[in-house]
Amino acid sequence: MIELYNYFRSSASFRVRIALNLKGLSFEYLPVPLTQGGGQQFTPEFKALNPASLVPVMVDAGQVLSQSLAIIEYLDETHPAPPLLPATALERARVRAIALSIACEIHPLNNLRVLGYLGKTLGVSGEEKSAWYRHWVETGLLAVESMLSNDSRTGSFCHGDFATLADILLVPQIFNAQRFDSDLSRMPTVMKIFDRCLQLPAFADAVPAKQVDAS
Amino acid sequence: MIELYNYFRSSASFRVRIALNLKGLSFEYLPVPLTQGGGQQFTPEFKALNPASLVPVMVDAGQVLSQSLAIIEYLDETHPAPPLLPATALERARVRAIALSIACEIHPLNNLRVLGYLGKTLGVSGEEKSAWYRHWVETGLLAVESMLSNDSRTGSFCHGDFATLADILLVPQIFNAQRFDSDLSRMPTVMKIFDRCLQLPAFADAVPAKQVDAS
Questions:
Q1: Which segment of A105-114, B148-157, B196-205 scores lowest on mean pLDDT?
Q2: Chain B contact probe: residue of A73, A142, A147, A165 with most B CBs at under 10 A
Q3: Residue among B96, B103, B135 minimizing CB distance to A73
Q4: pTM for the full model?
Q5: Beta carbons of A14 and A207 less than 8 angstroms apart
Q6: What is the CATH number of the domain that holds B27?
Q7: What gap in Å lies between CA A99 and CA A42, rounded to an integer?
Q8: Same domain, B108 and B153
């Protein structure tokens, strides 16, 4: 049985839950309560699994894997059906570029430890932190909107008509954006795909509110 | 001929230059001078190539690709020799996790536009910006050091004895860290691999100082 050390609200965890669901793989849900400062990600037990103190960590047949995108590529290689990447190198490059636009340009700027540093070390106010959050979400998602709306390969999902790595990254990011009241009105293509994804049980069952550790 | 829109000091550009060199692929170097605010990445011509206004952009047979990791995976799929990823899914997951630890946890926090926002919008001082920079580099690279030093699969390179995607990400990040006087003394494994990589012409020829737009 695959074990997933994760946290309901962590969007990197959310991504892996969607991928496991799309592959039809059952897994043991092991909650790692994250908090700024004293969260369980900093315990010696967890650091032995992942010295970076980050979730998710997936354990498959005793092998420990970290970094959500690496885990999802691994799942796609070891369980090829249904595929999470399209058939040609060029199409895969497009799907990965959309996914990485979220993973590298939006999410890292807005995670718990970065917001903690802004507040505690730099003395940035709550209002300024929210503005920071929305700035990076909106800048990043407008770029994704442009990548999607200006390309005929976009279908009912980010690429064609089945869910790929790009959709797996997109949906958790939108959940985060909504939590911080970001303005998503200028991203109609993104939001249409978001709604379409949530019609699939693989996405709907992975949302934060449905997890055992949701609070 | 492959075209590479890039900038000598951009570490995402540096990664793709290394990958092209490792594959023995020649390319046309098209400099995109980046500056905070009015850089050429914001011109309508460049935005038509990449709406995200980010380098690098690679054009291969008329097809436009963005996001350095997606470009490198594409190069590895379309030009398999020499490989930039190891042979098994589990090993590939490890190499990708090291690469993503740099691409997602370190680099995004320290690029030009983030430092610009800290200074201009949040009024953070130059000294505080340098401390921010070093904080994320050192936190992130110590995690990478731990991933490397506690794993028998680490060889003279990050994974075994040939250069992979992980080394391609590591070397530009160290160049950046050195520019900002980060403390790298606690990362002996990282630094040994860094030195080994730079013995290879593919890495040495890709360094910022050797590019036509270096200043």
A1: A105-114
A2: A73
A3: B96
A4: 0.96
A5: yes
A6: 3.40.30.10
A7: 28
A8: yes
